[in-house]
Amino acid sequence: MADHQRIHPIPEPEQEPPVQKPTVPLVPRGSFRSEKGDPERQQLEPPPLRRRTIPYYPPLKPPKKRICSCKRCLCCTCCLLFLLIIIIGALAAAFYFVFQPKIPNYSVDSMRITQFNFNNDMSLLFATFNVNITARNPNKKIGIYYESGSHLSVWYTGVKLCEGSLPKFYQGHRNTTVLSLNLSGQTENASELLQSLQVDQQRGSIPLNLRAKVPVKLKIGKLKLMKWKFLVKCKLDVDSLSANNAIRIRNSDCKFGFRL
């Protein structure tokens, strides 16, 4: 028998892998993008920069011990102030009950005018008053030292007519002192003053104001206290301001005040 011919399969030539084309977006450009976006742009555009977030830490609460110490200091301060007020009030009450301080009294008893005339052109007014003032100290255990540097003045419609001062003296317990004071002065531009003065003099009622600022020192027992300043304001109503004539004081009201 003839040899059987063997058939061997011929290997097929190797095929190259197909070249993959870039994927085309499902949605054409210019229309709405898909959720994943455009793959071509994703390859071209750089990835977005990531911002670094700074963590937020809430402020730390102060320790409870510091709060407690501040509360204790505040409570101690309030207690000390309250105790100091009680001590001062107790001392003031003791001083009042022991010494029984009373306000001094002042009054203008009489007034005499020795000079009250104008110059030729009525531009200047020359005035000299003699005023008797009574000062009363009603205190049993408090004396008053009247120091130098006092100032008294007499005013009419806001214009000062004359001025003077008190002498330096000591007024003892429950003492009444009558002072005779000479006050003199010169007033400029007195022509307008003369017109209003003539109207009031025809009515028979001329308002005057006497003001006094007197530095004093109080004596309690053997202790001499710091300097105070007595303020006295007296409203007077006189019938006339003619020189060398008896002047009647129709009304007198004096008010007293003081300051350091």
Automatic annotation (TrEMBL):
Coiled coil: none annotated. Signal peptide: none annotated. It is found in: Membrane. Residues 1-52 are annotated as: Disordered. GO terms for biological process: defense response to other organism. One of its GO terms (cellular component) is plasma membrane. Keywords: Membrane, Transmembrane, Transmembrane helix. This is Protein yls9. It comes from Nicotiana attenuata (Coyote tobacco).
